[in-house]
Design brief:
The structure is a homodimer. Chain A is of the alpha/beta class. Chain A has eight helices and nine strands. The longest helix of chain A has 16 residues. The mean pLDDT of chain A is 90.
């Protein structure tokens, strides 16, 4: 094993940047990296499978997990609670698997306190105009909601400097190449490489 | 332009690791990265072209350039002098081009003092046995020279911890993928991205 243990990659992006698509493609194309299934209090959408898309729990259970410090980060988004399980993360990383977490800027800020060794990646839309067009294209939000999301996006973008990498999702293939490059490069970062592995090769 | 200016990538490796092949392939496959032609006092080998492979100068000229601080690093290797021109580096980087420098561990140590923003990459052979076999396969060195190179390699390998990345060249394609990933990832590192470029996109 060339790694000490699995690495944690944290991706944040304003809503509409294409984060979900990019993360899914990355996990499909690279070996040894996975997604940690989050817990949520919201109801499953049609087609969603428990323990695959999310682990669906009621608010009581979720609150109990918060109290027992079972989340490395959690957040309330549009009235629903979402959280990342510490146990699931540590299990994957202990096996040497990398984990890709997709959290908002607030979640990333919390994670940075306990996971300073994580790799923090910020995705940007090519422009605010494009972002607005993409949000409108979803046709799921009212004009007021879109305005609210846009305001939130501008605030979030201001935080890009707190991230290690900033990737602009103008052309999906290019952004994916960059995201993959970040994962591959971080795997050969000297501080993440297992010195035992180097010593054993040097005979 | 998304970059502030070109980045400097420094590659060191024990002799026989396959550094030259890897660097040449990298430059062939990635845009906007080039090699800065070094100065040397050794004689051209058959097929070598002045100002393409090296700029060939006599020792007097080389010494004068040292005195005038025209090298960012220089070294004596097997009785010949080799140096990297400060002017050539700055010209390429000023145009926003990345530069790949291929220097020994001593040269890298000198560079680190003035180019702390450089990206330092160490290439390792898969094992010392493989290294010895590769050196023998060249059939250009005597057994004594091979022993000397091996001793030097072991010393150099001990310095890998001073580099940002460590790549093992066991399978050429994999090592090339990792080297390319390092260049692509470093280009989207937040500290290297031009904030003006992000601001101009956010309208």
């Amino acid at each position: 094993m060339n790694r000490k243990k699995g690495n944690l990659f944290i991706v944040s992006a304003p809503s509409g940047t294409g984060k979900t698509t990019l993360c899914r493609q990355l996990i499909g194309e690279l070996p040894d990296i996975g997604h940690s299934v989050s817990y949520t209090t919201r109801s499953p959408r049609p087609g969603e499978v428990n323990d695959r898309d999310y682990t669906f729990v009621d608010e009581g259970e979720f609150r109990k997990m918060i109290e027992e410090d079972e989340f490395v980060e959690w957040a309330k988004v549009h009235g629903n609670l979402y959280g990342t399980s510490r146990r699931r993360l540590e299990e994957m990383m202990g096996k040497g698997l990398d984990v890709l977490l997709d959290v908002d800027t607030q979640g990333a800020r919390h994670l940075r306190m306990s996971w300073e060794n994580g790799v923090y990646i910020f995705l940007l839309p090519p422009s605010l105009d494009v972002l607005r067009t993409r949000l409108k294209g979803r046709m799921s939000d009212s004009p007021e909601e879109i305005d609210l999301r846009m305001m939130r996006s501008v605030q979030e973008i201001g935080e890009y400097k707190n991230y290690d990498y900033v990737i602009v999702n103008a052309v999906l293939d290019e952004a994916l190449t960059e995201l993959k490059a970040v994962v591959i490069a971080e795997r050969v970062r000297t501080k993440r490489v297992n010195p035992e592995w180097i010593r054993s090769a040097m005979v």
